Amino acid sequence: MAAFFHPVKMKKILFGYWLTIPLLFGLYSLILAAVKNVPILTIFMNIPSLALTSIVVLLLIFQLFGLYILGRSSDCRHSLLGFYLKFNLIQQLFTVNVPGFLLCLFFYLSLIDAKEQTDVSKQEKWLIYGLIGFISLITILVTWVRLSL
Fold this sequence. Notes:
This protein is mainly alpha-helical.
């Protein structure tokens, strides 16, 4: 069981999950449009919950990009990667993505409880903070719209 919670393995599992879900959702949307014999845009315009879900699914691609940027960073909880994972835990809860929440939690718990050992460049830090701001804004808007439906 300890081998399962290795940070590198958890990173690959989370990376795979955040890559697979948008692909499966896109495939589902295309199949739904083909079965109903309508353009995919019509599906999104007529089913508001599907449109909101597509926005949440597309956010996974941005989160995947952030994880890719931090791929070479330290495997410590008190690093930028640890902060990014804590943010993603909260974001996954707001979007009611239980598997994503659990994978983020397991990945965070697999990190070493120590200070950051490698320095992350200022450019990477600003990119991650900008990404966190963008994901936060879209998540708040989607949650607000979802609660008002």
